[in-house]
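hey can u run this one w/ nicotinamide-adenine-dinucleotide bound, need the structure tokens asap thx
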Amino acid sequence: MRIAVLSETDAAEPRVAAVPETVKKFMGLGADVVVQSGAGLKAGVPDSDYEAAGAAIATSAEEAARDADLVLKVRRPGADELKLLKSGAAVVAIMDPYGHDAELKAMADAGISAFAMELMPRITRAQVMDVLSSQANLAGYRAVVDGASEYGRAMPMMMTAAGTVPAARVFVMGVGVAGLQAIATARRMGAVVTATDVRPATKEQVESLGAKFVAVEDDEFKQAETKGGYAKEMSAEYQKKQADLVATHIAKQDIVITTALIPGRPAPKLVSEEMVASMKPGSVLIDLAVERGGNVAGAKPGEVVTTDRGVKIVGHLNVPGRLAASASALYARNLYAFVETLVDKEAKALAVKWDDELVQATNLTRDGQVVHASFQPKAA
Ligand code: NAD
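ok here u go:
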């Protein structure tokens, strides 16, 4: 069994799909691991560390991918990479499949078995493979660090001989994995933290982290969580009540971190232009939903916008990639845990159980077809 770890071709992707620790584990499964030279550099892993862990270093993607049974990547392989892969190879990555029918077909045409890590079901058995959580957790942490660095004042209250610096007020909107970590991080830095969400279960979680919960707690709120644990899209009436509440609260905040997402829908618009305009000069908004349409009016993907009143709106892309070493280490462990389920340890070979629920949930293409139920080509 030959496993290839390729460099990411997207210059904006500094993460890598394997780290020395997981290379050793793959070798323990009886695999040969080949790493493309330089694949880990942006995540702080030189070729020599992979070599020390037992990997061979290939000088090109072509050499690394040649005859590989399994290819590990962070992002979906592009057309140039698909040409390098042998038919029947398995490729595991964050595939970003929604709205990319042509790219899915290209993977099917290349004959590969593509697995999308972000489609992993959120069940107990697959927790260790949950890339959404591992990456969102880091994004939530990084959002606070970015907020603190853009904010021209201190986060904790400081009583000095020269006077007192007040604690920053941080407001977290959307309390999923990223939001919870943002609350915890802002609290550790000494901020006064409030948070909001439409799912009632989050109230207790917010309070257990020492923050204050702010939300419209009406009948709709009590039923806003789907069976899967996600948020529903709220009615126009609820959104109006929520906006009124947020409008009075946000004007007093120094740093606002938004993380709100609804599966399969554009991100809800939570902060209007008027709300941004009501904030104090020097305050900062960090929009973690910017890649899905954004929660904040005026947020621009990949940019830090300063309004004419001196409020900064931060729209960094690939926020987990801003912590490339930690994000790669956790992602690599998520991948290893999944790949382990695809391997016959006695035969030391890939032996995918196609009826396993983890495989069914993540497998996009196989034997020249797009096989995933959610991505079937539409009938003409
Ligand atoms: P997400 O990224 O889909 O959304 C982020 C947050 O935004 C959610 O808390 C959501 O309720 C909130 N939101 C949506 N619309 C909003 C609005 N209009 N106003 C305010 N907030 C809004 O969420 P996630 O981080 O993926 O977590 C979703 C759920 O999955 C949670 O219940 C979480 O506990 C659960 N989860 C389960 C597992 C597991 O069982 N293995 C792992 C991770 C997360």
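The pocket of nicotinamide-adenine-dinucleotide is lined by residues 122, 127, 130, 132-133, 136, 173-179, 196-199, 202, 229-231, 234, 259-263, 268, 270 (CB under 6 Å). anyway lmk if its weird
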